[in-house]
Amino acid sequence: MTTMAPDTSASIAPVRKSITVRATQADAFRIFTTDMDSWWPRSHHIGKSPMKRVIIEEKAGGRCYTEQEDNTECDWGSVLAWEPPRRFIFAWQITPQWQFEPDLAKSSEVEVTFTGLGDGRTRVDLEHRHFERHGAGGPAMRTGVDSPNGWGDLLGMFAAVAEKA
Amino acid sequence: MHDIQLDAMGDPTRRAIVQTLRAQGAMAVGDLARRFPVSRPAISQHLKILKDARLVADEAQGRRRLYRLDPAGFSSLRDYFDQFWTEALDAFAEHVEARANLKRRKP
User: Fold this and answer.
1) CATH number of the structural domain A15-136+149-164
2) Run of H or E residues at B15
3) pLDDT for A71-81, tens place per residue?
4) A108: which strand partners?
5) pLDDT tens per residue across span A117-153
6) Which residues of chain B from 17 to 46 reach within 8 Å of chain A, CB to CB?
7) 0.80 exceeded by pTM
8) At B71, is the secondary structure helix, strand, or coil?
9) Pairwise CB contact (< 8 Å): B10 & A142
């Protein structure tokens, strides 16, 4: 192994998940996006108070945010592609310190595609990619790890740095 | 291991070392020391702590020892989301399934 040259293009492999659900393609798309609040794990938000509901604005450029019990709103993403009933892409705009990240260049992204199987079922393929972009803000610190918002083991977040190819 | 890593990252100089290595790739202790207002032995000590936490790996190259980030120690972001999306998609599928059952029971 002699490749010790600086590697600034290092990236982290995407996370890919697939699941098949008993719903038409249109229903699966709608439930995943517009009705995200009906299934999103309640513990997962970055607000300062308990989350009331999660909202996805149905258009490219739309906000992804939560409403909190203290009546604040908390942005956590943006819709990058809104193509019902086939494809939905959103930016994951959460810093390693569990704050909203306004800069898309420092955000990862999640692509969700819906494929009707013709028998009333739909396959949902999810890809969460560009984790390395979160590294631009530096590794996550204790502040994030200590925050009691239920995201569990946040050590993972400081890991924005790269797994080399 | 996670506690050790968090402790290792709890120091601002060590965080800066990690960021420098991330930007520069592999570096020798002397090259690192020149970038920081701390002594070379202090940098060595910081590197040892980062190495013990498996955040940094070293490798001999000729007479020099080069330090770089250890990809294994930094893979946990991906692990985190791997776990997260498994749970989230399961929750999604359960909800769709419950809805499908409800629909079927309706006249």
Assistant:
1) 3.30.530.20
2) helix B12-24
3) 999 999 999 99
4) A92
5) 999 999 999 999 888 787 643 333 223 333 333 222 3
6) 18-19, 22-26
7) no
8) helix
9) yes
